[in-house]
Design a protein that fits this description.
The chain contains 16 helices and 16 strands. By secondary structure, the chain is an alpha/beta fold. It has 2 domains: 189 residues, Aspartate Aminotransferase, domain 1 (Alpha-Beta Complex), CATH 3.90.1150; 255 residues, Type I PLP-dependent aspartate aminotransferase-like (Major domain) (Aspartate Aminotransferase, domain 2). The strands form 4 sheets. Strands 4-12-11-10-7-5-6 form a 7-stranded mixed β-sheet, with helices on both faces. A 4-stranded mixed β-sheet has the order 1-2-3-15. It has a 3-stranded antiparallel β-sheet with strand order 13-14-16. Strand 8 and strand 9 form a beta hairpin. The N and C termini lie close together (4 Å). The structure holds pyridoxal-5'-phosphate.
């Protein structure tokens, strides 16, 4: 397969279909870094602009329509701009309410109650992004334990938070490198990285550094690191070890919260961390995130006390923005009420896609494996990752495999397959993305037919 020629052909088609977007890109680039505010959205040769999004679909400035599996960074479990949330917001704004006020607002209590009742924890504090929430949670853990080390998983992504910008996706005989400039010099030595689902590596880290580990932060479902579930036995051991060593266990449920049922993965597994991070879905498409957990840890951000002992998680101008809180309440209530029919449906569609993609590529002689597979507790998941393998591997089980360029062909996935699917009318991410309640069986089937055409054309070009 001549990847260069295929990519050139795809770019040519994409350019022809997006003259207005190319113009917008060139204009935006004069003011914004590469024409936008989030690097992942600014794929090559240029992103499409001025989108109108509804349900499963996106229409761009040139009138191209896509079925979208990116769905707002996997936030939109009900698809784009769900009517229930829009109606609630329109009503709010028509009443002359909804912009920031700087007052506590009773609705916050309602969102807090839904989340704590569905997931667990004594207290919650809202903020505005997942990255901020994970940062505050680590500051709370450090203050509570009076320790310096943060333990994280290789491949774990917790947002652009200085305490965890190590071991994310840069592979060099493993995932263990600091991946940002501009950090305090000592940061690299304060972050330890351990391998996902590797009990021995976890035990070893606690054996060696247990007295110094302030917290272990882990995603019960690893998102950007490859759509892989943390095993129940692994999280149970993490609970045990953190307890033994008086460290704080933090579950980052920014992706997994309300994605697989109307709650967190922790309640399905029956494991309670000390702190939990929420983001994405809890705002129903608006910016809200939260740290929730044990009262004695959360109290470190309450007013009063010595400034050297308390954490400056005091709040920001837009903390618990009224419109965001209302959107979150409306969205989560809907998920709770429709849990029984909604989650099995999107999970089964996920299973169909995973099986379909693997079979299609296999029938054309390519080794392509999906991730997002459930386990004995989460039967099916609505998240689908696709990996083009360079080696004969049966199953992708770790972020180390996902990011190892000798195992997975990242360029083929993110540049070539992505553009090929866009040219077919499907917007994918991580090789496919997430299925929402707005996606129909017909759209899922059509996406598999597109994969079939692509695989066939690639196998013909060998
Ligand atoms: C697991 C996880 N934690 C934290 C974050 C950061 O959230 P935000 O992008 O809102 O800062 C993300 C973002 O994708 C995430 O996937």
């Amino acid at each position: 397969m001549d990847k260069k020629t295929i990519l050139e052909g795809l770019i040519k088609v994409y350019r022809e279909k997006h003259p207005k977007s190319e113009m917008h890109f060139n204009e935006a680039r004069q003011y914004q870094v590469r024409g936008g505010s989030h690097n992942l959205r600014l794929f090559e040769p240029f992103p499409f602009y001025d989108v109108h999004c509804k349900g499963s679909k996106v229409i761009d400035a040139d009138g191209n329509t896509y079925v979208d599996f990116w769905q707002g960074h996997f936030t939109n479990i009900l698809g784009h701009n769900p009517k229930i949330v829009l109606d609630a917001l329109i009503d709010y704004f028509q009443k002359g309410l909804g912009l920031t006020t700087g007052f506590p607002g009773l609705a916050q209590k309602e969102l807090a109650e839904i989340i704590l009742k569905r997931v667990g924890g004594d207290r919650i504090r809202f903020t505005t992004s997942g990255a901020l929430a994970t940062m505050y949670s680590i500051m709370l853990a450090k203050a509570f334990t009076k320790r310096d080390l943060v333990l994280k998983v290789g491949g774990g992504w917790h947002g652009s938070n200085p305490y965890v910008l190590k071991g994310i996706s840069s592979y060099d005989q493993g995932l263990n490198q600091t991946e940002s400039a501009g950090l305090p010099l000592e940061m690299d030595s304060q972050i330890l990285v351990t391998a996902l689902n590797d009990l021995d590596s976890l035990r070893e880290k606690f054996r060696e550094f247990g007295e110094r580990i302030a917290c272990f932060i882990v995603e019960p479902f690893v998102g950007a690191g490859g759509f892989l579930f943390s095993d129940k036995a692994y999280l149970r051991e993490a609970r045990e070890l953190t307890r033994q060593h008086d460290s704080v266990l933090i579950f980052d449920e920014v992706v997994s919260g309300f994605r697989f049922h109307a709650g967190g993965v922790q309640s399905l597994y029956g494991i309670s961390p000390d702190l939990t991070i929420f983001g994405k879905a809890i705002g129903g498409g608006m910016p809200v995130s939260a740290v929730a957990g044990r009262e004695e840890i959360m109290e470190f951000c309450s007013p009063g006390g010595s400034p050297l002992e308390k954490v400056k998680f005091e709040g920001g101008t837009f903390s618990a923005h009224p419109a965001s809180i209302l959107a979150g309440i409306t969205f989560l209530n809907y998920l709770v009420e429709h849990e029984e029919e909604l989650y099995p449906k999107i999970g089964q569609l996920g299973a169909k896609v995973r099986q379909g993609i693997e079979e299609i590529f296999s029938s054309h002689g390519m080794n392509v494996k999906c991730t997002g597979y459930g386990n004995s507790i989460v039967e099916n998941s609505s998240a689908v990752g696709v990996h083009f393998l360079k080696q004969d591997i049966e199953k992708i089980t770790s972020p180390e495999q996902v990011w190892n360029p000798e195992i997975c062909d990242f360029e083929l996935r993110e540049k070539i397959f992505k553009l090929a699917m866009l040219n077919e009318g499907f917007n994918i991410f991580h090789g496919y993305g997430s299925i929402s309640a707005a996606h129909s069986e017909g759209e899922i089937q059509a996406s598999l037919e597109a994969v079939e055409r692509i695989a066939k054309s690639w196998s013909g070009s060998k």
